[in-house]
Design brief:
The chain is about 50% helix and about 10% strand. With about 450 residues, it is an alpha/beta fold. It binds thiamine diphosphate and iron/sulfur cluster. Thiamine diphosphate binds next to helix 4, strand 3 and helix 10.
Length: about 450
Amino acid sequence: MKPQLPLRKQETENWDYFLDLPNPDRKKLKLNQIRQQQLQEPLFEFSGACAGCGETPYLKLLSQLFGDRAIIANATGCSSIFGGNLPTTPWTKNAEGRGPAWSNSLFEDNAEFGFGFCLSVDKKAEYAAELLGELVSQGLISRGLAESILNASQKTEADIWEQRERVGLLKERLEELINRSEKCGLGVSPSGATFQERDAEGAEKRGNEGFGSNNLKSKIQNLKLLADYLVKKSIWIVGGDGWAYDIDFGGLDHVLASGRNLNVLVMDTEVYSNTGGQSSKSTPKAAVAKFAASGKSAAKKDLGLMAMTYGNIYVASVALGARDEHTLKAFLEAEAYEGPSLIIAYSHCIAHGIDMGTAMSNQKALVESGRWLLYRYNPDLVKQGKNPLQLDMLQPKNSPEASMYKENRFKMLKKSKPEIAKQLMEEAETEVNQRWKMYEYLAARKVEKEE
Ligand SMILES: Cc1ncc(C[n+]2csc(CCOP(=O)(O)OP(=O)(O)O)c2C)c(N)n1
Ligand code: SF4
């Protein structure tokens, strides 16, 4: 033991040193490699979750990948509590002062809440594009700049960075137009014509407003307010299994069926963690949970399979501790997919009765027993004549029973009700094995190329 104060001084210096290390250039990192990706600055840090929580690493990853473009709707549950224990919040901002936008909604309507974000962001981007087109036709913004903004691909970090630059130029130009119109009432358009001349010309053509008009000025001002929406946003609807499998399942289904470009992240702890561990439809058979004291008797609901039946939803089942690069790939693909995406992410929890210090490696054992599957279902592959379902794991080699009995939630039943435990465990084993066979069959199917 040593006195605390001198240690604190040294550690404060160390802390400041690490904070001063520059962040690597986001454009240059190879994001499909976890070693490089992990150098991205996290915008989710120091949460109040339990030490070793299985949910937080997914949120950190999300914040690193989509950072200040992310708009997050968070269902009530652990993630909304450790994500919004106001007045502090683990969601933070980068050196430019920009960070993810985050808000919490109810346990029963978060999918709809996030869907609203998506509709409003799309509408604002659409209106911004419309205004931009109008200002180009009035000769106030150059066609080249507008076309480069409207046709930008925005797929990679470098694309996004270039788009931000272009939108920055546009905002400068809009500011200039606003200043000129405020100073002298009438300014000069890029073609050299005065606002008044262009006004007359435009008014003659359209028989309505002119450049000096308040209407045109408000269009310029509106575009300045909305221009940032021309940089692609990343909508994330996040929550736990209680939210997604049970209480807002109807809303989630509706939102996924909408076909809109949004992303859903379910952090699946297989139990209602935040309220002390009640069973959800995601709780596996034979596990003990509140309201399932004699072991859950029904099988775990297959949310991923249900979503796949739509055919146009990107679906991934991931476990960061089992294969980190697979999780990374799924996040990148889900975000890039032009449509709804659903990621179901295995999240260990203190409610499982495990050693939280080694829980990440337990996820590997979980996958090796077939209790959790790693897969990606990408509808875009059908266009190439490929099966959209890819199983991203080897045939399970370990027994599900042995893996389950490493967790107190299963062990408890063996002690309290051995007969029931035996029967449920046998059924659970059979179901795990059958599920693997079904997925193996689905992933091996031949698929006709879409015309
Ligand atoms: C309609 C309604 N019922 C119950 C609650 C209480 N409640 C808040 S969070 C929660 C459990 C959340 O579980 P889950 O969605 O699995 O998230 P986790 O806490 O596991 O991350 C419950 C039951 C509530 N907020 N609203
Ligand atoms: S209860 Fe579980 S999900 Fe909630 S913070 Fe703790 S470990 Fe994470």
